[in-house]
Amino acid sequence: MPRIALDGLDGCVRCERLQHFMQQLPPAKGRCRAEYHNAPVNGFGDLQAQVCLVGLAPGAHGANRTGRPFTGDGAGAFMYPLLREAGFSNQSEATALDDGLRLKGLYITNAVKCLPPENRPNADEFAACRPYLATELVALENLQVLIALGHGAFTSLLRLFQAQGLIKRLSDLPFTHGGAHRLSNGLWLVGCYHTSRYNVQTGRMTPELFRDFLVQIKSLLERENA
Ligand code: SF4
User: How far is the CA of 133 from the centre of ligand 1 (A)?
Assistant: First the structure.
């Protein structure tokens, strides 16, 4: 599946804390260290996509192991069947780089490309990785809708747009599930609760909620393309 070329991403060591954390992460039960990607994880998907989904960062034993966002963990196991149902992917399974998954009209990436401790990048790490995110958004020439999965990704996108002069105050664009904001360049930014295992287990995110969210995104696209 195509990926946007990000100069300097392979071997990027801007964030010392994250590099250290990845190298000492114990493998999941039944796995060995050699099975782990343990490096920056690039986005992937349809380079002609009108929709880009931005997560927070690679999951410890998902993307950080397999080298592809939301692949091999609970967040992906929840998300991909619903993406397939909505027509954004060719299959429900996302288990490994060679599993045959192809996205249609969708690109998936993360705000921070390396695994952070406790899923919490700090402000410096968000900022250090933001140029990669900026490059991805420029490369997606047909982009119309940005989905920010969770508050962290949403805020990092807002900081990018603020630096680009597209918005003034972050507080003008609050994060809510399904809340859609139109930027001055015409792009839509839409917040979505994260599909993490924690959110699914606590009922904050449900299949119905994510299904309805994808219907909302498709309606937004239909209106834009009418
Ligand atoms: S999080 Fe981003 S900026 Fe930091 S080391 Fe990884 S790829 Fe580089």
Answer: 11
